[in-house]
Each structure stands twice: as structure tokens, then as C-alpha cells.
Amino acid sequence: MSDCKTLLRALRAGEYDDALRPLYALDGTEESLLRSRDRAIGVVELFEKTFAPVGDVTLFSAPGRTELGGNHTDHQHGCVLAAAINLEAIACVACNDDNVIRIQSKGYPMCTVDLSDLSVHADEMNTTMALIRGVAARMKELGCDVKGFD
User: Fold this and answer.
1) pLDDT tens-place string over residues 124-134
2) Residues 96, 45, 139, 87, Cα dihedral to 10°
């Protein structure tokens, strides 16, 4: 982990290319590597501009998948036939001292959930905030120390 400035400097210098290459440059071209590096840099820059974090930040990547059959049955112990796809989600994350989870996805309004109130909010039904609040509530029920992050 490092602050945004250090992470950006390292990304621009190619220090993470060995980690990016097997994830995003599967065709072996320098163009794919540079595109993935630029995308990571853009995410960190936008995160820094949006949240102005004071401490350490971490860059995460989650691979894409699609469900070919059995959609939404996996959480009910059913069988799902899934396949990897060449899309993914990347995120820059930092802890905050606000006891609030703030998630900003490019092109969408910011989602904010105050962790001091993890009760069900009827007005949030079927929204991203309800999902965030529900996951945080369950993690807390399981004994996890749930803290705020951007």
C-alpha cells in the first residue's frame, strides 16, 4: 500500500507492469499493457480527485464473468455454469475515519452509507445502497470490524 502520489509514480514508471501483463495484456502486445496501465492510472487519478485521501490507497481488480446457465441460483445453493470474460472491474480504495462507506463509480452518482445505521431502509429497496448496507450489516453480525472507506 502507498499514497496516491507514490502509487501513480510507480504505475507511470512501469513498476506494476509485471502484475498487469498476465491480467490485462494476454495478447502479449505492448499496446494492451500500456492501455491497462493507463486505465489503472486513470482510476487512481479520479479517486485522488474525488476523495483526496490522506493515507494509504490500494488498487483492486475483480475479473469479469458471465453466467451461461443458472443465473442467480448460486446464492441459493444451486448450480451455475459461469464463464470468464475479458472485462473486469478495478477500484482504488482507502480507509476513512468517517464511519461511512462512499462508492463512486464512473458515470454514476456517489453511493453513501453511514455505518452507524445498518437497519433496513424501505426507500432504498432494490438500490446499490441497500446492497452495501446489507453486506455491511451481515459482516457486523458475523463479528467483523466494519469501518468506513472510500
Assistant:
1) 998 999 999 99
2) 180
